[in-house]
Structure formats: C-alpha cells, structure tokens
Design a protein that fits this description.
4 helices; mainly beta; disordered N terminus; about 260 residues
Length: about 260
C-alpha cells in the first residue's frame, strides 16, 4: 500500500491526482479534470510547430468555466508524468497509465535516486513491488482504502477561477494542446474543501498556503498542474502532466500478486 498524505477521496467528476513521489515520499496525487462529451480525445488540431507557452489563435479559445461545467460523467484513461523537484536533490518521478474521473486504477512506475517502485491499482486492491534488475521481486497486496482515491482537480480549477480576474492568464499551448492557464495562491482553508490530505500535510508542516498553476483543455481536463510548497528549508515543486486521453482501460492483478 502506498501512503497518500497529499490527496483526498475521489469525487464525482473530480480529477485524478495519481501516485507521485513528493517531499515526504511516494504520494498518490492523481489528477485530471472533467471534460465535455465522451472520454475520447477530441483535441482541436493545431499546427505541428505549436510550442508550449505560445499564443493560441482566437478561434481555438474557450471559456474555462464553461469547459468545466460541460465535463463528462464517465471515466477515461490518460498517460501520467509527475516530477517532484527539491533543491540539491535528484528529482522524484512517476510515470504510467491510469483511469481518471472515477475510481482510480492504473499501472505506475516511481523512480528516485535510491529506488524504483512499480504499482498496480485494480478495482479492489493495490499491488506494489520494488524493481530489482537482478531478481523477480514479489508483489505486496493490500486492500483499497481512501488513500487509493484522488484529489478533486475540478475543485482546484474552481478555486482558482473564484480568485478573480488575475487568476485567468489566458490561452496557451501545452505541447500541441490549446489550454487555458489558471494561476494563483490557495490557502490551507481553501484546500480543505477539495484536497483533505494535502490540507492535513500542510497543517502538520506549518504551511499556510501554496502557489499553483493549472492548465485545462477545451473539455475541462487538466493537462498540466504545478504546485509549490514553501517548507522550512526549501521549496518543493510538484509538476504533473496528463496526455493521450482515451477510453477507460482494464488494470488486472499482476501474476503472482
């Protein structure tokens, strides 16, 4: 079982914040927002030369509040990449494939300078093992709990939108995806309503708030999310990217799990 000090149980249409290595260890941070229509990828076509951060043509612009409101009710799958950066230390990374926008399931790999871990979450269990290139490591099985759940990233987007006009940074490309950039500072009191575990972590560390940036696509799905925690000795940054959206996938128990 992988502990989850940063995220809350899943909510309807909430964004999945998937397993991520954070400043306190490997953390479940799943994340993706809701979108309109089906789970299929219907991103608008953009020129191959589109660069992250570049301006989006007006005919591809959209209202972020309308995009969130028109989100799908069904789960969908996505590729996930999350990197945690800490000054003076190697980054912690998590990559894999997961089902979002509903009960979280997925197959993920976590890497740090000291170890590499593999995790499979099915509809009823969690399986974790250390990856040892010299041996076939055994899986450890545990039942799903609330810490197998996901944070509400729709909620994060709504909090940022509610912060006022300054939070709306406008349309930007993220890769070849036209996305709306939201940015702001969220307090510990605000976080309690959308991400209980992050709220608890902040409270125990004496953190009163954090800066975050979020990019959502025309279907309301989060394609990128960044949060920066100011801790006692340094600032830790979590960077999450979600891509290749598609129909839900099946994640089964591993052989020998």
């Amino acid at each position: 079982m992988i502990t989850n000090p940063f995220t809350a149980p899943p909510r309807r249409r909430g964004m999945a914040h998937v397993l991520v290595a954070t400043v306190v260890g490997v953390t479940l941070m799943a994340g993706c927002g809701s979108g309109s229509g089906s789970a299929s990828d219907s991103r608008a076509a953009v020129p191959p030369a589109a660069q992250t951060g570049s301006k989006v043509p007006e005919d591809q612009a959209f209202d972020p509040e309308k995009a969130l409101a028109a989100g799908p009710e069904e789960p969908y799958a996505a590729s996930v990449e999350i990197i945690t950066e800490r000054p003076g230390k190697p980054p912690l990374t998590m990559t894999g494939r997961a089902n979002l926008n509903g009960p979280f399931t997925g197959h993920l790999q976590m890497k740090s300078s000291a170890a590499e871990t593999e995790s499979i979450t099915t509809v009823d269990s969690n399986y974790v093992r250390g990856i040892d290139p010299t041996a076939d490591a055994a899986w450890t099985k545990s039942p799903r709990t609330e810490s197998s759940g996901l944070a509400d990233y729709d909620g994060y987007a709504r909090l940022l939108l509610g912060s006022g006009a300054a939070s709306r940074k406008g349309m930007e490309y993220q890769g070849n995806v036209a996305a709306f950039h939201l940015s702001g500072h969220l307090s510990i009191e605000q976080i309690a309503s959308v991400d209980a575990n992050t709220h608890d972590f902040m409270r125990t560390k004496g953190v009163t708030g954090f800066d975050c940036d979020q990019w959502i696509d025309s279907q309301g799905r989060t394609v990128r999310f960044e949060q920066r925690f100011g801790l006692t000795s340094a600032t830790a940054t979590n960077k999450a990217a979600f891509s290749d959206f598609g129909a839900p996938e099946t994640f089964s128990a591993p052989t020998g799990g």
